[in-house]
Every structure is written in structure tokens, then in C-alpha cells.
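anyone seen this seq b4? input:
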Amino acid sequence: MVNINIEYFLYYRIYSKEIENMNGLFQSLKENLVFFLEFLLIVAAIFAVAYVVEKIIRKKNQDTSRVLSTRMVVVIGMFSAIAAVLMLLEIPLPFAPSFYKLDFSELPALIGAFAFGPVAGVMIEFVKILLKLLIKGTSTAFVGELANFVVGCSFIIPAELIYLVKKSRKNAIIGCVVGTLVLTLVGTSFNAVYLLPKFAEMFGMPMDVLIGMGTKLNPNITNIFTFVLFAVAPLNLIKGFSDSLITLLIYKRLSPIIKNTKK
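predicted toks r here
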């Protein structure tokens, strides 16, 4: 009964915070301006890394096409909108507390990255977050949005860079496998070191309460390490595997349409 009351308390706090933020996103920006600026710096750093590495690989491959083109901008806008909608369609999983849910918002970013490069993938991830904030606001003072962006890019960038070196089905598969592993490693580490402690701090509750919600689902969860091992890591593996599988199944058919080229 105590666990149920705690969970309801958490739901209430999250729901109340969402209502407040939906009605006052600019107020949230004002209150968390420093963190939001740090968020933008991280975005700029990731974008710069993706841009430089993409330029190096393109030069090595003697690819003189532009990193950004008019068609790319159009596709990025369209795919970002699809990703934002997918981000709102969350699926609960039986092995993780209900504040962890599966979504497929990285799928359009991965497809866009395969079509146009990692810079396009990073831009889709970022614009997706902006659209989500405009639609729903933030219930985590931008912490959850930062986590989603960082973890998403940790999946998109390595997968696309491997594919960009030599565009073949084999490299696409290798890239997706590596991307999924990096996603899982970064996602679990980021949750353990930063996201979960910050989440507990924001909602004014001890870490033991969050860990207890995991213990309720799996008695093997007894601390932060086992929490991310048995709840967060499987979620990230499922996310990376499903997005990779769908991309590998449909990308070849979508590629000529996205790039506006003939088969």
C-alpha cells in the first residue's frame, strides 16, 4: 500500500507539473534559464562534432555534396514532426517503472541520418525536442528532454558514421548494432550518474523511493546499479533493436522517395 501511495504521489506531482509547464513554458525557461543555456551548448557541441566528422568522411570518400541542402531542410522538418508525434506515443513496459516508457521517436532520425548524414539526424533529434516542448511543455525542467536528445544522438551518430564510410547493407547492419550498444551504454550511464539523481532532487524524494519502485517490479533491483541494469538497459536495447530493425526493413524502399531519386 505504501508503494502504491508513493507511486500515486509521483504521478500526481508529474501530472501537476505537466499542467503548469504546458500553461507556462516561457516561465519554465525563465526559471531554468541557466540549465537551458547549458542544454543549448551541449546541442551545439554534438552538432559540431557530427558536422566535422561528416565532412572528414565525405572528403575521404570524395563526396562533394553539401552537408545541408534545401531538400534536406524540408525532410528534416517533416521527419522532426513525425518524431515529435512518436515521442508522445509511449508504450509502458512490465520490467520498468511507469516513468520509463518505450517510444519510436528515434526512428525518423535514424532514417533521415541514413539518407543525408549524421548532421541531419542530430537536427531531427533537436527539432523533435523543440516541437515536443511547444506541444506538451516540460515536466522535468528540461532534464528529460536533454536526456532524450543526448541518448538519441548516441544511437544515431555512430550508426550513421559507420554507414557513411561505405554505404552498404553490411555497414548499415554493423552501424545499427554498434549504435544500439552505444545507446545502451550511454543511456544506462547517463541515468545512473545524472538523470535519476536529478529527477529525485526535482521531485523532492530520496533515491530509495525511486529504487523501491523498481524493486516492486523486480526484487533483484536493490540499488542504482541494479536499477539501470534490469530496467534501463533492457529498455534501451529494445529501443535500439526495434528502431534498427524497422529502418533496415524499410529504408531501401524509402530512400529514393526521401532523396527524390529514381531507383
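Residues 224-259 form the longest helix (36 residues). The chain has ten helices and two strands. kinda curious what u guys think
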